[in-house]
Each structure stands twice: as C-alpha cells, then as structure tokens.
Amino acid sequence: MVKRVAIGLLLVGVLAALTLVDPAQSIWVPKCLFKLFTGLQCPGCGCQRAAHALLHGDLIGALHYNWFLLFAGPYLLVLIAERFFLKGQWQEKTRAWAEHRYVVWFYVVSYFVWMVVRNILHI
Hints:
By secondary structure, this protein is an all-alpha fold.
C-alpha cells in the first residue's frame, strides 16, 4: 500500500513539475544524452516537451515534439496502472494483454522503427 501511494505521489509530482516548468525554456530539465553525443534524435527526444504541451491541452504541439509519445503513452499508463494500482482479476486480465509477448515486441520494434524514421525524415 505504501509503495502505491509513493508511486502515485511521484507521478503527481512529475506531472505537476511538467505542468509548471516548460522543458523547452528551463536549464534545469535534463537534456537527451543520446542526442548530445550522436547528434541523432532518440525515440524519446521531445517527450518532456510533448508531455508539457499535452498537460496544457495542446495536442498539435505535443505531436510536433514527439509523435511516438501519443502512440506509446497510453500503453505506458496501462503498464503503470497494472503494476502499481490494479489488483486481483483486473490486474491479471490487464497483465495478460499488456505483457503479452506480441504486444511487447510490437512496441519494442515500433520504438526502433520510429527512431530510424524520425532521423531520416527529420521529424
């Protein structure tokens, strides 16, 4: 129970920070080390800015920063809910779907495909 409350408070804290602080303008928000060292965008580049835009209701702005976040974000939320907040039959049913090997492989492959596509098309 304490673990769930701690995870919930951490999630609320991160969302509050992303709501209040614009990652595009702040020097305190961590930058992507992959991009810093390679010059290429990783699949997650722009996720902080996209989440900030989403929290402010700017869906088009979020898409501008990272298309993949809108694709994988709901899946990530399902995984968090299944792991920390659901119990019993709901947790088992959600885990059976969310952790099925085909679903996991689909997201892993799409993650790397997105990395290649976004660097080729400069998205």
